[in-house]
Amino acid sequence: QVQVVESGGGSVQAGGSLRLSCTASGSIFSIYSMGWYRQAPGKQRELVASITSGGSTDYADSVKGRFTISRDNAKNTVYLQMNSLKPEDTAVYHCKVIVTRPQLAIYWGQGTQVTVSS
């Protein structure tokens, strides 16, 4: 069994900051990548940022320069520092974990709500 738990969401005014955390636990021997996706009401889930075990990162154009993803491999934890938040960042943020051992598998967290008011 693998558990993915997110934390750190909340409500903030435009221009503010939030830090999300996601920890994977359970029968995990190797994680390839961890990332954050978000889904706003009526919209499809989209990539926000991801990071591989080697430290390679990928960001959505809409968050470049404002969000920073980082990872603690020893703790199987990924962080998303979100600065200069905008109302359009409002969404449920989900953590995605790609595991390669004991077998290739993808796990999702239940999500954490981020609300940015103008």
What would the keywords be for this entry?
mainly beta; 118 residues
Provide a descriptive summary of the structure in words.
- The structure is a single chain.
- With 118 residues, this protein is mainly β.
- Helix content is 0%, strand content 61%.
- Strands 2, 4, 5, 6, 9, 10 and 11 form a seven-stranded mixed sheet that branches.
- The chain starts with a strand and ends with a strand.
Record field, number of beta strands: 11
Low-confidence stretches: none
Strand-residue proportion:
over 45%
Alpha-carbon distance between the two ends: 41 Å
Element order, helices and strands? EEEEEEEEEEE
Fold topology:
Blueprint: E1 2-7, E2 10-13, E3 18-26, E4 30-39, E5 46-52, E6 57-59, E7 67-72, E8 77-82, E9 91-101, E10 105-108, E11 112-117
Parallel strand pairs: 2-11
Antiparallel strand pairs: 1-3, 3-8, 4-5, 4-9, 5-6, 7-8, 9-10, 9-11
